[in-house]
Amino acid sequence: MDAENSLEDAATLAGVPDEFQRLWTPHRMAYIQAGPEPLREVCPFCAAPEKSDEDGLIVARGKTAYVLLNLFPYNSGHLLVCPYRHISTYDEATPEEVAEIGALTQQAMRVLRTVSRCDGFNLGMNQGAIAGAGVDAHLHQHIVPRWASDANFFPIIAKTKALPQLLGDVRRAVADAWGQ
């Protein structure tokens, strides 16, 4: 059955048409099933570098820090810069780690601007659970690309974020553009 016939057949299925649009995001089921504190027993930022770049969602590796996609992104292309060392706060980082986190953040911004044509960024580090850190035991810097049209009612009303790209596709695009 081709897509055109599928749409025609959908008109005869059970249900009453209404004014609501449906946004199907089956990839979000991994987040829902993981619960509010996924990977609590294993630090995801210590585990990621031990995996392949594809499996760990890593886009670039440095000497003291690396860049990966956020598994639960706010927007498509939401990156994290993490030191390899398991430290919890910025003041515990060495001068070398601070410098590399900064350099990787700058490069990530350049790459995201090229790959996603974003209009701006939110950058930040949530230090400690009370400050909103989802993984408070391992330091990480957020780089969230923003577009003029990316704000809508979903996060406020439905606690849902619409993401137009799959993580693997975003990882591949950012990693491919990293060295250019």
CATH level-1 class: Alpha Beta
Number of strands: 5
Largest sheet: 5 strands, antiparallel
Order of helices and strands: HHHHEEEHEEHH
What global shape is seen?
globular
Strand order within the widest beta sheet: 1-2-3-5-4
Q: Which regions have little confidence, pLDDT < 50, spanning 5+ residues?
A: none
The end-to-end distance, rounded to whole angstroms, is 42 Å
Could you say how many structural domains there are in total?
Answer: 1
Give an account of the 3D structure.
By secondary structure, the chain is of the alpha+beta class. The protein has one domain (43-178): HIT-like (HIT family, subunit A). 34% of the residues lie in helices and 14% in strands. The protein is built from seven helices and five strands. Strands 1-2-3-5-4 form a five-stranded antiparallel sheet. Helix 5 crosses helix 7. The protein is globular. It starts with a helix and ends with a helix.
